[in-house]
Fold:
Amino acid sequence: MTELNVPSRGLLIINEPDTYRLIIKSTMPDAERFEKKVMEEILPAIRKTGTYSAAPALCTEEMLLQTAQVLLDHKRALDIVSSSVKAIDARVGKIADQMERQTTMPEFFTVLGFARIEYNTSIPIDVANKIGRKAATRSRGLGVPIGKAYDARFGQINTYRHDILQNLFREYETEPVA
Structure:
């Protein structure tokens, strides 16, 4: 045992080998159980295999089962990620289609976009809604398609042919839109 010069607190520090010697010489029940485990389980395992693990060794079937469970958990997680990627791909595809339609139908405008481009002004949203309703009615009446566009503020919105919006804006200049 090693004793350090520590002020008189009665502190005694024992190194590891001396701790084992003390436990082996002890007659306390816990010390005897520890000695039995070291002598009958730990030291023989180290002598036979060069190592000791407190966890019991798994048989081949148990290891295969454990590996299969890990693989199944990973597959489930991958399926969730794949499902999310498919949903994102579908949304990206829709947006790409919308953008394609917008670029292939350049003569179509939103009401607010038309006001900005043709008149270099912005109009109140309630006025744009009124003009939009009139543009939709007129387009349907003439059998003219109504386009779609995505707007970050409003989501999916209608687009109308340039000539229809031009006529409605001219009418709006001369009389209020009802």
Summary: The mean pLDDT is 84. The chain has two domains: 1-54, 102-174.
